[in-house]
Amino acid sequence: MKNCCRMLNQVKISILIVTHDSYPDIKVTIESIIKTLLNISYEIIVVDNNSSEKSVLRYLKEQSKIGNIRFVPLSVNLGFGRANNIAFSLSSHENILILNPDITFDANSEKNILELIDFVEEDETIGAVSPALLKPDGSVDRNYRLNTEPFQLLAYRFKKIIYSRRLKEESLPSSPRLRVSSLAGAFMIVKSRNYQLIGGFDERYFMYSEDLDFSFKLKKYGLDLFVLTDLLFRHNVGSSARKKPYRMIYHMYKSMVQLYFKWSIFAVARNALLFIVVIPFVVIEILFRSIKGNKNVSD
Q1: Residue 274 has pLDDT above 60, yes or no
Q2: What is the homologous superfamily of the domain 4-149+170-239 according to CATH?
Q3: Which of 31, 72, 80, 151 has the most crowded CB, counting CB atoms within 10 A?
Q4: Average pLDDT of 186-190?
Q5: Where are the domains of the chain?
């Protein structure tokens, strides 16, 4: 790792976390960050999207008494992208980590963060970088897309539902530096200047697909996206989504249609077709999940 000593002394990072009924995962995440990032100067900005669980609010208010943790409670759920933009507007550092409230840091995490920052600084054409993510059972959480064509995404989604056990055997790519078409918003490091360049997250998405849109905008400016597959973090994927699975299914397909209407179809037809296209996929997925007994919308 280049400039290791310099990085240990000088690296600064703003960690942006959006929560909604994310307890106890957010507690595990914050405490693991505090325990492991000992030589990095960091700030944590948590924006809560109107959680109904008192335990989340109580914990975050208590943590905000710590000097480098800032808690912003919202009176309404503004969605993932808009809440992240609020967090970004309060950030102080050039390195931005967009982080889910269900990621766990371990003994290797500080070294991994430094390597990710080193990598994104290697070349100005690198827009964002992510590590590889593993689910609690050790299987791969594919936090990236190599192909972002609509029918490919739909095919893979239903493949995950129908062949979920088989996909648990999926292995990490052999390439340690994997160039991808999009990155997931669960864990993404981006420079503040690039976040500003693309205008942050498109706030018209409520949840899901805003990270695809974020990726598309970075690529529109000629910036590349990478996953460093030998750097690992644990992700308790879908912990919040499991609490309201059918509502999340609706938002998932709605945002997917919004995404491709924005990037592929004339705006005139967008609003008229939006719900017509969304509803059949919502019904189909609810039926499949009812049959399979799988309520983890993120899985």
Answers
A1: yes
A2: Spore Coat Polysaccharide Biosynthesis Protein SpsA; Chain A (3.90.550.10)
A3: 80
A4: 97
A5: 4-149+170-239
